[in-house]
Write a structure and sequence with these properties.
about 260 residues; alpha/beta; five-stranded parallel β-sheet; two-stranded antiparallel ribbon
Amino acid sequence: MKQKTSFRPLPWLICAGLAIAAFVLRFLLPGYGFSALVCCCLLGIIAFYDITRMLRDKFPKTIRVLRRVFTVCLAIGLLVVGITEAIIIRASFGNPEEPVDYVVVLGAKIRDTGPSASLWDRIYGAYDYLQAHPEVTAIVSGGQGPDEPITEAQAMYDELVKLGIDESRIWMEDQATSTWENLNFTLDLIEEKTGVRPEKLGVISSEYHLFRSSLFAKKCGVEFVGIPAPTSQPGQRINHFMREVAGVWHFLILGGQYD
């Protein structure tokens, strides 16, 4: 007699743990939303395989096909994610030794209490670079979101001046609401002030963001020089590197003007 497939508690205990982790990451820890989504995906994968395991005695052919199709799709997805992540990581080192006349510092979220962790990382990254390259002019770029107290450009300008960077070396572009606009509006501002549109532009941003920024720069017709601003919080580094895979594929599939 064929033995009936039994319920196994371990997969569902793991699913419960993942559900709790997803809730905490999504609602209690700002900035970790993508990690919560990853937990939900893992939960779904475990649940799928265990549910189909319990149903395969009743629907053997259907379950066999479903599991094979799902496994193939999952393997392809993991391969694509792995390759994309490897490209993002490789680009994250940038090429800061390449000489440039201008660098744009890309904005990030401002909270009521001040710059977010990501924006502080970019401010400090810009400070270090400008200290080491006193001949370079920086353009701080970022507008004001509906829930931001001031423009991102103003926040970066204020903090860089407080850190000791000469205000004459910092230009503000305070209208951009996306990476596409950051680069385009910066190039327009440089051309407006100098009469010449640069062929090469340094971009200071979080290290995980450099590859996607290079794709935008290519669309803008400018040579890209990546200057990484290291992410200071390890948890956010992991979250943002994972999230960036989705951002890259959003760009590759839909293209265009988005953050």
